[in-house]
Amino acid sequence: MKSTVENLGPTRVRIAVELPFEEIQSSLDAAYKSIGQQVKIPGFRPGKIPARVIDQRIGRAAVLEQAVNDALPKAYAEAVRETGVKAIGQPEIELTSLEDRESIAFTAEVDVRPDFEVPAFEALEITVDDAEVTDAQVDEQFESLRERFASLRGVQREIQSGDYVSIDLVASVNGEEVEGGSANGLSYEVGTGDLVEGLDDAIIGKSAADSVTFSTTLQAGPFAGSESEVTVTVNSVKEKDLPAPDDDFAQLASEFDTVTELRDDLREKLGRANLLTQGAQARDKALEALLAAVEIPLPASLIQAEIDWRTHDAVHALDHDEDRLAAELEASGSSREEFDAQVLETAQQSVKSQLVLDEIAEQEALTVTEAELTEYLFRQAQRYGMAPQEFANQLVQAGNLPALMADVRRNKALATVLDAIKVTDASGNNVDLSVLAVSPAEFAEMGGFGNDAGGEAFEDHSGHDHGDHEGHDHSGHDHEDHTGHNHG
C-alpha cells in the first residue's frame, strides 16, 4: 500500500492511498460468502454458491461494492498508522479509482490534531483571594444556623419583608383566567422575589384577609411574555422567631455545650471551605492562564461537534422544543443569536482546553491506573445517585469509558500544572495547595474540568472525547453513535 499526505490547512489533511487489488482479497472473499448466504440459487446450498455463479446471477459489481465498503475503512486506518497522521473525527472518503483485479485508489480528508508548543507553565503566576476567615463570615454562618431553628408565629399587623404569608393567586390575561395560573394556600417568604414579579410590592403593607390586584409579565407557560393581571388574597401572616444566641441554642443546634465552642467549630469549617474555594479559584485561573499563553488552530469538526452537543443539551432539557428555548431566552432578556455566540465561545474554549491538557499529558507521560479510574467512577456514581457497578456497566454499554479515562488523564495534567505554577493570595502570601486533603487529580476534578463525561452516558445525545483515533473505528470523538462526551 502506498500513502501520501497533503496538508489542506493547519488542522486538515488529505490522505491519498493506492493499494494493489490483492490486498482486498479477504474482503472480497467475505463479500462472496455473505452474498452467497443471502441469495437462493437453484442447485446450490446457501453459502456454497461458487463465485463465478454469483458473478453471473448477482453481478461482479455488487460484490466489489460490498468488498470495497469493507476494505476502505481498514485501509484508511492502516494509512493513518503508517503516515503518523493524528486523525480526529470522521474522514470523508472518496473512491478515486477501481481497476478490477489490478488496483484501488481513494482519498480521505480528515481533521488532525494541530501541532503547537505547550507554554512553559512553570513560569506562570496567578493570584487568588485570601482564605482567612473573617468575623463577619462566622457571624453569617451562626445567624444562618439560628434561621434553621427558627419558629413561625402568627401576627395581626401589616406585612413586612421577611414575613411568611399564606396566599391565594389568580392570574388572568385579557380578562380570562390563565389555565394553571391559579393556586390556593401558597406559602411564601416576603422579599425573596422568587414567586411572581411584583408580588412583594403588592402585598407589603397589607394585612390578613386583604386582596390586591397588580400587573406582571408572565415568565413561563403558553402566555410567557404576556401582560397579566394577578389578584392575590392574603390568608395569614407569620413572623419568624429566632432562638436566643446562648448556650442553650448551642446545645440544641450542635454537639457543643457553649456558643464559643460552636463558633470556633464554624470558624474551622469555614477555614476549610475557604481553602477549597481558594484552590478551585487557583485551578480555574491556572487553566485560564495556560490557555491564554498559547495559540492553537482549532479543528472545525471538533468545534461544530461541541456546538451541536451543547445546543442539543439545551433543548433536551426543554423536550427538544426550539420554540420554548427561544421564549425562555427572550424572557431572560437574551436572544438566540446571543445564545449561539456564547455556545460558540464556550465550545472553542472547551476544545482548546482538551487539546492543551492532552498535549501536557503526552509530554509528561501521564497514565491512568485502574485504581484512579475506579476512584473516579465511584465519585461520579455518587454524583448521579447510582451504585458504582451499575454506573460502570452503563458506561461500558454506552461506549463512554474511554471518555471517562480521558477525563481522569486531563485532570492529572491540570494537577501537574497546578503543582508547578506560582500561586499567591491577594495579601501576597504564597499559597500551598498541598494542604488540601485530596489527591491532585481529585482536586483538579472537583467542580471543574471533565465532570460530565459519566452522566451523559445515560442521555441520548453525543459526547466529545477529542482524542486521536487511528484504528478501524475512525470516529474521532464519538460523533456517530452519540453516547457520551468529555468537555471542559
Helical/strand content category: alpha+beta
The number of helical segments is 14
Largest sheet: 5 strands, antiparallel
H/E topology pattern: EEHHHEEEHEEEHEEHHHHHHHHEH
The CATH level-2 architecture of the largest domain is identified as: Orthogonal Bundle
CATH topology grouping of the largest domain: Trigger factor, domain 2
- Overall pLDDT level: 86
CATH superfamily of the largest domain: Trigger factor, C-terminal domain
Distance between the termini: 39 Å
Low-confidence stretches: 447-464, 466-488
Radius of gyration: 32 Å
Which descriptor suits the 3D outline?
extended
- SS elements, strand count: 11
Explain how this protein is built.
- The structure is a single chain.
- The protein is α+β, with helices and mostly antiparallel strands and 488 residues long.
- It has three domains: 111 residues, 2-Layer Sandwich (Alpha-Beta Plaits); 91 residues, Roll (Chitinase A, domain 3), CATH 3.10.50; 181 residues, Trigger factor, domain 2.
- Strands 6, 7, 8, 9 and 10 form a five-stranded antiparallel sheet that branches. Strands 1-2-4-3 form a four-stranded antiparallel sheet. The chain has a two-stranded parallel sheet with strand order 5-11.
- α6 packs across α7.
- The relative contact order is 0.12.
